[in-house]
Structures are given as structure tokens and as C-alpha cells.
Amino acid sequence: MKLIVAVDETWGIGKNGDLLLSIPDDMRYFREKTRRAVLVMGYNTLLSFPNGKPLPNRMNLVLADIEGVVAPGTVICDSMEQLFSIIRDMNADDIFVIGGGYTYRQFLPYCDTAYITKMRFSGDADTFIPNLDELEEWRVEETSEEREHEGVKYCFVTYVNDAPKPVGFSAKKSDMPRYFVKKEPVTIALRDHAAQRLREDEKALLHAYFRPLERGVGAEEVAAFLSEGDGDFEAYLLRHRLIADENTVKAMNRPDEAHSDEACSDEAALRVTIGKEKLALFDEYAQGRLSAAALAERCR
Ligand SMILES: NC(=O)c1ccc[n+]([C@@H]2O[C@H](COP(=O)([O-])OP(=O)(O)OC[C@H]3O[C@@H](n4cnc5c(N)ncnc54)[C@H](OP(=O)(O)O)[C@@H]3O)[C@@H](O)[C@H]2O)c1
Which of 21, 142, 243, 284 is least surrounded, with the fewest CB atoms within 10 Å of its CB? Predict the structure, then answer.
């Protein structure tokens, strides 16, 4: 995961909801770096774009903690957990955190690279990011030659973090059940397609998430499955489509033509909510803290 930002001498990044200064060369740099990338931003940053519209040709993931917010062409996430659940199968190199201050601060520990445009002036900012020169884990890898725009000198500096935190949870085996027990309810904002326009793979994902809510998981059935030695708990969940397999999640998140700006035009984001059912117990089972028999007994 990477971060890209323009800062002034005080590590200020914005004022009154806007940038401190717009340098065309820096805009070009931003476009090049984030070409076809997945962008992560806070809601205020989305609002700061022309007409509050997402940036074209890139998947725009927007964090917003506001009830009912709908932003055409974006995927709205109401927590970091939800955002991590969407990006978990993506290539971390394709993901760029693009602001603003609140969002940079939350994601900084997860980023391995920060592209900082350093502008030599003070813009009397009201929004800041931490000074990377003062953070032990960050070091400068590369600095460009100095340039100038309307009397303001600036350069592009690449910082690297040698020990970034791993992104959220992964789709790895023992973590899958945990996804269901992490939060209740879990809300997943799918791209803004009306239900009838859902692609097949999106339908599959939707279905996969809905099933636990519809019928729960039969503990005895699980126990029987496990005792037959046909596979582990995750295999059970996958076989019964109680969780989405990695390919489904990948397919759904692929930034392909079907997810072009046109496809994501004016429709409201579709949100689905799942409950945790009895999966906390299965989580205990997955961690070896509960036997199959105890699992069946407790879920009866
Ligand atoms: N210089 C640059 O390169 C650059 C780049 C981008 C933006 N900016 C500037 O930065 C400023 C905006 O920054 P900002 O700090 O005000 O806002 P921001 O980070 O863009 O957005 C904050 C919003 O996102 C929501 N949000 C963030 N994390 C969340 C989470 N984990 N869960 C749920 N919601 C979450 C917040 O909701 P709640 O408050 O309700 O929690 C809040 O509504 C503007 O001036 C903009 O121009 C500068």
C-alpha cells in the first residue's frame, strides 16, 4: 500500500477543504503514479474534487461514517475493517492512499512507500500529516531535482517504511471465520449497480454472504463433515458457499471494463448486511479451543 501527498514546509496539506497549492507538474506526477490504481480516500477529499466526483479510470474507495451517504462511482466503506475486506486480495502495490489528513494518519503504518511532493512555502494549513523525517520507521529513498512553479520551489521525495503493518486480515484460512464475527452487522457496499444489473460474480458474492443469515450453519452437519475428514472448517464453509472463495472476491474487485465510470454512473450504492450467527463458536473451533463435539453441543 502506498501513499501520495503534497506537503508544505510544515507538513501542511490543505486549508478550508482545499489544496494549499495546485502545481500542474505535481498533478501529472499524481496521475502517472496512480494510473489504474485503487484509490483510498476520506469523504472530505472526495468532496474536494471537481463536483465531488471520483477520479476516472481508477477504483475509488471512500471512507465515510455518515449514514446513508451515496457517492456514484465509488465504493463507500464505513470502517477500515470494511475497506480492508475489499482490498485484501488485491496487489498492495496497486493501492494508493490519497488523503486527506485524517485518512493519511490512519493508513500511514500500513504503507510501505510514500510519494511526498515537498513544496518550499508555508500555506497556513489547517490539515496536516505527520512529519516523516521525525518517524523512525521512515527513511528517504530518493529525491528528485528541485523544480519551480510560480516562485515556489518543490521536489518529489520517495520515503520507504521497512516494516509496514500487514493490511487488515487476509483471506488466509484461519482468518476467514473471523471475518464473520468481527463486527455485527457487517455491511458490504457493493459497487453501485441496481440489483438487476449485478454481474454474475457479484451475485455469487452476495449470495455467499447472505447464506449464513438465511439459514445459519448447522453445527451438527459441520461436526459430521469434520469427523469424516473431508476437509477443515474453511472447506466446509466453501463447499456450502457460506463464504466467498478467493476467486470470487478477486473477480468482484477487478477494476475492469464492467467497472468503468460509465458502469458506475448514477445509481445508488447497494449495501448488504450479514449477521454473525453462530460463527463465533466456529472461530473458537478453528483456533483449536473447542472440539467438534463441543461445537455441535454448544450450537444445538
Ligand atoms: N496535499 C494533498 O496532497 C492532499 C490530498 C488529499 C486531500 N488533501 C486535503 O486534505 C483536506 C481533507 O482532509 P480531512 O482530514 O479533512 O478529511 P479526509 O481524510 O479526506 O476525510 C475525512 C472523512 O472521512 C471519513 N473517514 C475517514 N476514515 C474513516 C474510517 N476509518 N471510518 C469511517 N469514516 C472515515 C470521516 O468520517 P468521520 O469524521 O465521521 O469519522 C470524514 O467524514 C482537504 O483540505 C484536502 O484538500 C490534500
Answer: 142
Among the residues of 34-87, which ranges form H helices? Answer: 43-48, 80-87
Q: Is 78 in the pocket of ligand 1 (CB under 6 A)?
A: yes
129-171 tens-digit pLDDT: 999 999 999 999 999 999 999 999 999 999 999 989 877 433 3
Other CB atoms within a 10 A radius of the CB of residue 67 amount to 6
Round to whole Å and give the CA distance between 33 and 58: 12
- Using a 6 Å cutoff on CB, does residue 279 contact ligand 1? no
What residue spans in the chain does CATH classification 3.40.430.10 cover?
Answer: 2-161
> Which ligand 1 atom is the nearest neighbour of the CA of 17?
45
- Looking at domain 2-161, its CATH superfamily turns out to be Dihydrofolate Reductase, subunit A (3.40.430.10)
pTM over 0.90: no
